[in-house]
Each structure stands twice: as C-alpha cells, then as structure tokens.
C-alpha cells in the first residue's frame, strides 16, 4: 500500500552575512522548506559530515537530517561558496545534492565557472521569492529522496519520488 505525502525538503543555507542568511531562511521557510542556516563553509561541511580534507566522517558522525539542496553565498571569508561546491561535487556521497550559488556581484566569468563545476543555479542577491520558486525542480530532478545517504537510517521506511508525477510514497 502506498500513501502519497507532500515532503518537507531540507535546504542547507550558507552565508556569512547575518542579514542575507535571515532573508534566505525566511524565504525558504515561507516556501515550506525546512532550513538549516550556517555562517561558514566549515560549519556547512561539519553539518554534512564532510571533513575539510575531502573525506567523509564516520557513519556515527553523519547528520540524521536529509539535505535535499545547498544554497551558498559565493564570497565568504576563509573558504568560498565555490570551494564548498567543489567539495560537494568531489564527494561520492554528496555529489548528487543540488547546489545553488548566490552572489551580490554579477561577474559572468564567476557565474560560468560555478555552473561548469556543477552548480545547478546562480542567483544574484538579494534573493527573491521568484528565485526560491526555481529551487523545487532541482530538488526533484531525477533524484529520489532515498538516494541521499543522509535521508534515512536502515530499517526505516523509504520515502520515494514517483517519476510519473503522482507524488511521493512510502516503501516498507
């Protein structure tokens, strides 16, 4: 038996600016996303269980919460959003998580470089509600929720996306 449900997708938002972080967090929450907001790439990597040297933390150190999308500022002290993008795409466990880069600077070479490295979108700040509405297809595109290694623990039901467009269901 299958039960259709509307998922609460989880977005990891990374921005060193408190004001920008609060804005994106509010826009995402108003659009029915669950949000974890952090102020640095190192905190994002820690949350994802990815160590700065590119290795993955042990399974006991991994987050229990699924991350369905990462949205990150490009310019931050220390590691940039571009550095985070590269680490995500180099990780065997995390590479399928969509990454969106945002920046207040409209630099075509920067935008192209991010998109070539695997970013799914590049938003110019300030992020608007119309930008947030463009996130859902990236979360849904050909990826089932259970393909994310952080989306469930063994023995729990699997919440899957139906490719035929009928919604989501639990598999036991």
From TrEMBL:
Q: Which residues carry this modification: 4-aspartylphosphate?
A: 73
- Keyword Nucleotidyltransferase in the entry? The reply is no
- A single BP term in Gene Ontology: cytokinin-activated signaling pathway
Indicate the segments forming the Response regulatory domain, all copies.
10-140
- UniProt-listed SMART domains: REC
Key word Cell wall biogenesis/degradation present in the record? no
Keyword annotations of the record: Cytokinin signaling pathway, Phosphoprotein, Transcription, Transcription regulation, Two-component regulatory system
Function, as annotated: Functions as a response regulator involved in His-to-Asp phosphorelay signal transduction system. Phosphorylation of the Asp residue in the receiver domain activates the ability of the protein to promote the transcription of target genes. Type-A response regulators seem to act as negative regulators of the cytokinin signaling.
Family membership: Belongs to the ARR family. Type-A subfamily.
Stored PANTHER family: TWO-COMPONENT RESPONSE REGULATOR, TWO-COMPONENT RESPONSE REGULATOR ARR9
- What name does UniProt use for this protein? Response regulatory domain-containing protein
């Amino acid at each position: 038996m299958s039960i259709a449900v509307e998922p609460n997708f989880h977005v990891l938002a990374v921005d060193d600016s408190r004001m920008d972080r609060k804005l994106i967090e509010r826009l995402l929450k108003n659009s029915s996303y669950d949000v974890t907001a952090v102020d640095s790439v190192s905190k994002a990597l820690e949350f994802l269980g990815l160590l700065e040297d590119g290795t993955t933390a042990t399974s006991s150190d991994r987050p229990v919460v699924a991350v369905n999308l990462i949205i990150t500022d490009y310019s931050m002290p220390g590691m940039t959003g571009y550095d985070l993008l590269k680490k995500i795409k180099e990780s065997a466990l995390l590479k399928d998580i969509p990454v969106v880069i945002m920046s207040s600077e409209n630099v075509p070479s920067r935008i192209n470089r991010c998109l070539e490295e695997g970013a799914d979108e590049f938003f110019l700040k300030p992020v608007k509600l119309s930008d947030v509405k463009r996130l859902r297809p990236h979360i849904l595109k050909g990826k089932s929720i259970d393909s994310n290694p952080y989306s469930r623990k063994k023995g729990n039901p699997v919440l899957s996306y139906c490719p035929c467009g009928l919604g989501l269901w639990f598999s036991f």
